[in-house]
Specification:
Blueprint lengths: L1 E10 H7 L3 H7 L2 H9 L4 H19 L10 E5 L5 E5 L1 H6 L4 E9 L2 E9 L8
Length: 126
């Protein structure tokens, strides 16, 4: 059952400028995310745009705007490269029992992220 759906777009060129500012990275991203972004070489700005769009999409799915610490919504990747959120702090408590599904895509200088907040439907007996 859907609790919320969010979509966000972020220009890569905007992140190219912010990538030079270590304060931006440390303020909004976990140390692991900052390392991941830096490891992406020429794709770093595109990766950063995707991570930022993911947080914005999550805030839209919640319907409350950016009213949480952005570091509490860390974007990680499976061994196959699929993105997912590792939630912590108050945001983890707020979304207890809810699974946020994340998809990130890049094209034409734009990063897009979609978040679907899923709540298990126990009424069907499943």
């Amino acid at each position: 059952m859907c609790k919320g759906l969010g979509l966000d777009l972020c220009e890569v060129s905007r992140m190219e400028k912010l990538l030079k500012d270590d304060r931006f990275l440390s303020r909004f991203f976990t140390p692991e995310e900052a390392l991941y972004v830096r490891s992406r070489g020429v794709g770093a700005a595109s990766t950063l745009a995707g991570l930022f769009a993911a947080r914005e999409a999550l805030s839209k799915a919640l319907g409350s705007g950016l009213d949480f610490d952005l570091k509490e919504a860390e974007v990680c990747h499976t061994a196959d490269g699929a993105p997912y959120f590792r939630l912590s702090g108050r945001l983890k408590q707020r979304l207890a029992g809810c699974t946020p599904h994340l998809s990130i895509s890049h094209d034409g200088g734009i990063a897009a992220a979609v978040v679907y907040l899923d709540i298990p439907d126990h009424s069907s007996g499943n």
